[in-house]
Amino acid sequence: MKELGIGLLGFGTVGAGVVEELQKNGEMIANRIGVKPVLRKIADVDLDRDRGVNVDRSMLTRDAESVINDPSISVVVELIGGTGIARKLILQALKAGKPVVTANKALLAEHGAEIFGQAAERKVDVWFEASVAGGIPIIRSLREGLVANRINGIYGILNGTCNYILSSMDKEQVTFEHALKDAQVAGYAEADPALDIDGIDTAHKAVLLASLAYGFHVPMSDVYVEGIRGISRTDIEYARGMGYKLKLLAVIKNESGEIEVRVHPTLIPVEHMLSSVSGVYNAIQVEGDVVGQTLYYGRGAGRYPTASAVISDIADVCRELAFGDIKRRYSFSWQKEEVKLKNMGQIESRYYLRASLLDKPGVFGQLATVLGQHQISIASVLQKERHAGKQVPVIVVTDRAKESDFDAAIADIDAMSAVGAKSVRIRIEDLG
Amino acid sequence: MKELGIGLLGFGTVGAGVVEELQKNGEMIANRIGVKPVLRKIADVDLDRDRGVNVDRSMLTRDAESVINDPSISVVVELIGGTGIARKLILQALKAGKPVVTANKALLAEHGAEIFGQAAERKVDVWFEASVAGGIPIIRSLREGLVANRINGIYGILNGTCNYILSSMDKEQVTFEHALKDAQVAGYAEADPALDIDGIDTAHKAVLLASLAYGFHVPMSDVYVEGIRGISRTDIEYARGMGYKLKLLAVIKNESGEIEVRVHPTLIPVEHMLSSVSGVYNAIQVEGDVVGQTLYYGRGAGRYPTASAVISDIADVCRELAFGDIKRRYSFSWQKEEVKLKNMGQIESRYYLRASLLDKPGVFGQLATVLGQHQISIASVLQKERHAGKQVPVIVVTDRAKESDFDAAIADIDAMSAVGAKSVRIRIEDLG
Predict the structure, then answer these.
(1) Smallest Cβ distance to B292: which of A137, A304, A320?
(2) Is some CB atom of chain A closer than 8 A to the CB atom of B273?
(3) B124 within a domain of the structure (yes/no)
(4) The CATH number of the domain where B201 resides is what?
(5) For all residues of chain B together, what is the average pLDDT?
(6) Mean pLDDT value of segment B62-81
(7) B430 by DSSP, 3-state: which?
(8) Closest by Cα among B74, B184, B60 to B125
(9) Do residue A271 and residue B276 have CB atoms under 8 angstroms apart?
(10) Which tens digit of pLDDT belongs to each residue from B142-195?
(11) Are residues A82 and A229 in the same domain?
């Protein structure tokens, strides 16, 4: 059977998982695809650490460029991460005419135009199944499985760390800080968790999904991003009482050619399947104009699920190289559909608003008046506590309203003398 | 842009859906894949019926062979269904060297060896995404997305009619007969519903999934099939009280090289995501040794979801024809893994047993003794009604036991003089 050489850049957790699984299942994979991917070289700065996998020492090098330029290597797998050296090496590999497999969502989201531009110029391709939702084959499903569909919406739980934290806050009734610490102890959150909990990682993935869905590179700067740092248990509990669960959701919508891409804490109906996605799992609902609703679920990160996705790309690229159609297609069609991006002020949503109101006759009327002045109508109101003369939490759920109207309303509400603290706003998606 | 001619055999519900969606989204699809699929001919026995879609009358013909042999047609799409004329026409198309796209699960499950054999001989391929779980891209996910994985298990709700009936029985507390009639009125069940409710359709799909997962053609005759005709509301209600939902489940398992493929009413934990799949939706949980659990959900049948899957195959085959790699791969790798098929007696399961027992001291002891004699241990017992001297239902949930042992035990139990009616047995899957 024909063999193709694979070069690995980055021998960390995921890299070691790829090596381990290629050793374990390589024969089976070769039988399935009709060509054998053979790992030939691994580059990493640390050649000594034990990764729980045996490799011939002669395969290891500190010199990544020697891997890229090795003529026995046909496919370069980048698992270094980040937007620094990884960017430089991927561009080099593409320049050398070698297809690249990567799990690097940050790089593709922030420098996608450059990377995919280089790939198209050199007529090689970049494969990135592992960059969104780990082991879930969402890239293939969206690009090939749903090729017949205009994508009306994508709703994704795309960050396992955040979902683990929100699940703990909900189930074990702990604070955000407590849940974050638990996640760090369990190895589900980094020592510096900012990229995850501030929503950046989810936004990177949303950019890739939206770009695939609509055929143009959605700029990261046009994505509204709000993380989960500010979430309080109070709101999770109130929302639960009203039939909602709180998730950090990537929302991508196409309403008559106007696209919105946003990431923020979102209330979703408790009976919806996405609500039952807990812990480090990811899930993505994709709505196509032909197929209707579909949903994909699995582990979104970790050594093995990510290795599964990386190897699926290695397998496809080997099949293409072996059977001679490297020009078959590129990752993105780059055929921009007739769409334009909305800015955040233009989006419409239902809202959960928690205001801290003085418990005094007439005060709620003031709040309702402010909402009315901004064309926002109230769907329901909840006030559980009474404490005459003091501030109490009042929850208002609104009908669909424009974000810019809601911004203005919340500013007016927070300026009311009867309001004792900054109001909390959480967007609601009813998920059709 | 290059154009490729498509010939459609069968202008029924799904065929008309394919035509409609190719008209609506054809331009977009062509831009995405870089080649334009153009529908050139449609064969059907009925040229006059209104299908809710406009086609040039000159495209229609009663002569299917003229479509297959038309030199302007590169891809044949078979949407006639059944194992008669469809088989003959597919074999003809393959013989003529034309790739075939089909939604025909019955044909592929029952004559797969012949069809795929012919395809391999002629070096063309058969595409069948639409044959399992309608719009859900499960074939691509299993074959390409999870290529790195040994498949440990597949658990599928694969028949919308059955799931609709079981959901109604559960939610609206109606009998099987009532729910079936509702499904027929709603257009979700055929006038002759046998293929669906007797589990045959689910078994056809299970055969295709198992064949893909393990690389050999699993014979339909080796699949244990039990439908939902015998299901009573009583058992749905008792099971719900014990934390289970009843689903018609396709179960495919690989335990150390021993494969089991079976279809039967199954109790699954109520908190599992598959339990929340209701109505005509389908879902499939796939467990890979690398990726862990993944799940895929969507509409499993109907004009549009099926059209979405058919068109995804048309798109892929056009891309392959246009960019010159028709020999890239075949549907199945036919590299049988080191596995053998279990017969039903060898499988192991937990069981729900409802016995109709005389309410008299010592009778339950007799039942427990019989179970013990067959190496079956009891996990829990439920007896709600008391009616001294009469028969009452007693529910026993067992630990894991061998099917052949349980067969023997149930025969002994039904032979007890204190047992008033045939016992009910439902298998349980705890779904890890």
Answers:
(1) A304
(2) yes
(3) yes
(4) 3.30.360.10
(5) 93
(6) 98
(7) coil
(8) B74
(9) yes
(10) 999 999 999 999 999 999 999 999 999 999 999 999 999 999 999 999 889 999
(11) no
Flag whether pLDDT at A164 surpasses 50: yes
Domain shared by B83 and B147, yes or no: no
Nearest to residue A126, comparing CAs of A301, A332, A336, A307? A332
Contact A170, A240 (CB under 8 A): yes
A141 to chain B nearest CA, in Å?
A: 6
Any domain includes B257: yes
Q: What are residue A151's DSSP bridge partners?
A: A288
Count of structural domains within chain B:
3
Stated pTM of the model: 0.93
Say which CATH number the domain at B373 has. 3.30.70.260
Chain A environment of B150 (Cβ under 8 Å): 25, 28
Residues in chain A, total: 432
Nearest to B280, CA basis, from B412, B158, B396, B382: B158
Name the pLDDT band for B327 (thresholds 50, 70, 90): very low
Query: Are A145 and A126 in the same domain?
Result: no
Asked whether B76 and B93 are in contact (CB, 8 A), the reply is yes
Cβ(B228)–Cβ(B166) below 8 Å: yes
B23, closest residue in chain A (CA to CA)? A148
Expressed in percent and rounded to 5, the helix, strand and coil fractions of chain A are 40, 25, 35
Query: Which residue from A223, A104, A205 is spatially nearest to A162, judged by alpha carbons?
Result: A205
CA dihedral sign, ordered A223, A228, A231, A235: positive
Chain A residue closest to B338 (CA)?
Answer: A28
Q: Tell me if chain A has a CB within 8 Å of the CB of B327.
A: yes
Shared domain check, A374 and A356: yes
| pLDDT (tens digit per residue) in A340-362 | 888 999 999 999 999 999 999 99
Q: Which residue carries 């998606």 as its tokens? A: A429
Average pLDDT taken over every residue of chain A: 93
Q: Does A144 sit within 8 Å of B141, measured CB to CB?
A: no
Residue A308, chain B, CB below 8 Å: the answer is yes
Element holding A5 (H helix, E strand): strand A3-9
Q: Which of B16, B82, B103 is nearest to B313 (CA)?
A: B103
- Residues of B with active-site annotation: 205
| B180 found inside a domain | yes
Token pair, residue B349, equals 């399961």
Q: Do B335 and A311 touch (CB under 8 A)?
A: no
Do residues A248 and A378 both lie within one domain? no
Residues B148 and B292 in one domain: yes
A154 and A269 co-located in one domain: yes
Residues spanned by the domain of A398: 348-428
A292 contacts in B (CB within 8 Å)?
Answer: 135, 298-299, 304-305
- Reported as a single tens digit per residue, the pLDDT across A233-263 is 999 999 999 999 999 999 999 988 889 999 9
C-alpha dihedral, A64 to A70 to A75 to A81, nearest 10°:
0
| Residue for token pair 């919508």 | A253
Chain A residues 10-29 within an 8 A CB cutoff of chain B: 21, 25, 28-29
- Which stretch of DSSP H or E encloses residue A403? helix A403-414
Nearest by Cα to B284 from B267, B268, B270, B298: B298
pLDDT of residue A336: 65
Q: What is the CATH number of the domain that holds B22?
A: 3.40.50.720
Beta strands in B218-257 (DSSP E): 224-225, 244-255
8 A C-beta contact, residue A293 and residue B298: yes
Mean pLDDT within B96-122: 95
* Nearest residue, CB atoms, B148 vs list A25, A34, A294: A25
Residues B153 and B281 in one domain: yes
Answer whether residue A69 is part of any domain. Answer: yes
